[in-house]
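Encode chain A's predicted structure.
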Amino acid sequence: MMERLRAAWQVLRGYAAAQDHRASAWAPSGGSANAEVGLAAATVARRARDAVRNDPYASRIVDLWTGNAVGAGITTRWPDDAHGRAWQRWAESTACDAEGRLDLYGLQALVMRAVVESGECFVRFLLTEPSPVNPIGLRLQVLESDHLDTARNGMVAGAATIQGIALGEAGEPVGYWLHRVHPGAAWILPGATWQSSTRVPSSEVLHVYRKRRPGQLRDVSWLAPVLLRLRDLGDYEAALLMKAKIEACLAAVVTEEGDEALTGAAAGLLRDAQGRTVESFEPGMILYRRGMGSVEVVNPSGGGSHAAFARRALEAAAVGAGLTYDQVSGDLTQANYSSLRAGKIEFRRLCEQVQYGMLIPMLVRPIAERFHVQGGLLGLWGAEMPDGVSHVPPAHEMIDPLKDTTALIAQVRAGFVPQPEAAGAFGYDFRAAVEMIHEANALLDEAGLALDTDPRRVAKSGAAQDAAQMAAVEIAATGAAAPPRVPTEPASGQG
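Encoded structure for chain A:
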């Protein structure tokens, strides 16, 4: 037995992080993902929202993630006109919003903001009467994480429940216990109570969050790793500001000769020229106190290492939030094309991971599928989901459009990048882009216009295409027969 314990101890000593000589006070929790999230989610969410309301850098982090991951919206392209026209009327109007304030792409941004701030967000499907702007009779209600009744645990209504989420046999969510009214609201709906919650089937609720561990059912605010650093930075800057304001207000301190001892009760009190005790400071003040008699001119001290400290704190906050320092701070004094490009490449990978790993599978695609199902029930189209449905995230702005576009063209010409992916780099669906180009060319031809940007008419060098080339283009475009070839006279000196 002792030999086995000794062997286990030798194995443990193989990892420095498992030894106690430097980390004796490091005793992390060994709980599951759900246990750790359940203990921290609510507190972290409240602190994160407070930071977003009051801290400019926290607010900036939320805006950056929302603007880059969602932007103008993740669009859904349908291969048929029936779906496309109905989707356009529904998604681009406020009829899809249960509150009637935002269109679908505004709701996407709202969900993303809630996920960054609180760690999770809920979207509930609600049915209504079909209308011209809402042909499928579907509305979306966005709910904050506080609507989840986390007090529901154990066997509730015949289902194993963890923090308000009812689970099936495989651990999949089958229902959510949701409050009708936000627990922190100052009003209440008729017939409801502050503690009332209703189980809603999982088919009627979308739960959007970033899953970081196996078996994880919820998540905490994305600001959790950086909240303390941002708060420390804010407190430090507030203290420096107060110090600078006091030093800037005082011009001099006059110590008058008096009968009172220096250790007396009034020896250290600062008074103005009228002898009144000073409890607040104003610019240019000259203060008086009892003493041996002297005049001390106040010389404000320098800023010290504030700039270096603030930069390090913001660098750590940016790393913890998955962003770059220049994005969070807005400081571009030391940035150049190479550094910006290197930082943007890493951020774009993280952003695409969020788009294709969270937003599209948890939000965008389920909404499109529910849209199709509702339209099928109303007889607008068949029950089978059409092939070729695509979800296109917004394009990332190029750092140097000329350099980036030239490189992309070279990659397409070499066959390294297919044209559909190149079109996606600009936020376009390839089929939609081809249709738009075809319609634009048809309009130009109908009007008899030839632009110098039209490769059918103008060569890459800017010169007009010759007649043979233009005829070949016309034949390929219209399907007309090739003109008969006119024989030419042989050149002189040839048989």
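The longest helix spans residues 337-377.
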